[in-house]
Amino acid sequence: MSDLLQRGITALKSGDKVQARRLLGRAIQTNPRDEQAWLWLSGAVESDQEQLRCLSKVLEINPANEMAKRGVGAIRKKQEQAAEAAKSAPPFPWIADVSSPQSQLSQPIPGLNHSRGLDELPPEQREALEGFTQLTTKELVSHRSRQEIIERLVKRGFPRQAVKQFVDELAPLSIARDKMIRRKRYGKMMWGGLLLTLLGIGGSVITYIIATEPGSVHFYLIYGVIFAGLANLIIGSVGWFTNQ
Fold first, then answer.
1. Cβ atoms of 120 and 46 closer than 8 Å
2. Residue-wise pLDDT tens digits, 41-86
3. How many helices (DSSP H) and strands (DSSP E) are in the chain?
4. Rounded to 10 degrees, what is the CA torsion of 136, 141, 145, 150?
5. Which of 132, 161, 213, 222 would you label with 38, given CA atoms 20 to 30 Å apart?
6. Secondary element (H or E) of residue 168
7. C-alpha span between 153 and 137 (Å, rounded)
8. How far apart are CA 240 and CA 149, in angstroms?
9. For the chain, what is the radius of gyration of the CA atoms?
């Protein structure tokens, strides 16, 4: 038995599934046909699909492995029961609309393991959580409270630790988007200020030309438009360059 396999088994027996998956995964990388590594890994993974994949690998290596056969049979039976139950229930309860009065998810699902991280979620639940990427980013950009966003997603049935990781991973994206929005706003202010300044100067020049003609005595300096344009131009320019 390899050292990696032995350490992986020890980690699994001690309840550290994350470490067990890492060690057993490395053992399999070293020897992809390690029957025992695949068998023990089936006990360290989280989802039925992952367990089934590991046990199928065991049977591919050794079709006579009784433990793998029993494990596959148990998973198949569980899947059949779940399929029957799914006929009368939504396939993904965690994506229900919690804003709806009819929603049953006003509180987190009882018994949910909130210590599970993002990388420990089953593929289908991680995919469902990632479906909220755009909405969560918009809420971060609008400066909605991080804790409020987390609580809303937890109420949809996602583990708290996974939600925290998900929101933290989106934070840099929201910052970049926030800067882009501000840059666009300041850009409009900058060009608008330049246009106002040019209009004010142009108008003043025209009145000056008219005032130099015989019979004209009035010259108008449109300083209000010029000052407003210059203020917008300066503020917009500073904001635009600050948010690059």
1. yes
2. 888 888 888 888 899 999 999 999 999 899 889 888 887 877 776 5
3. 10, 0
4. 20
5. 161
6. helix 160-211
7. 13
8. 29
9. 32
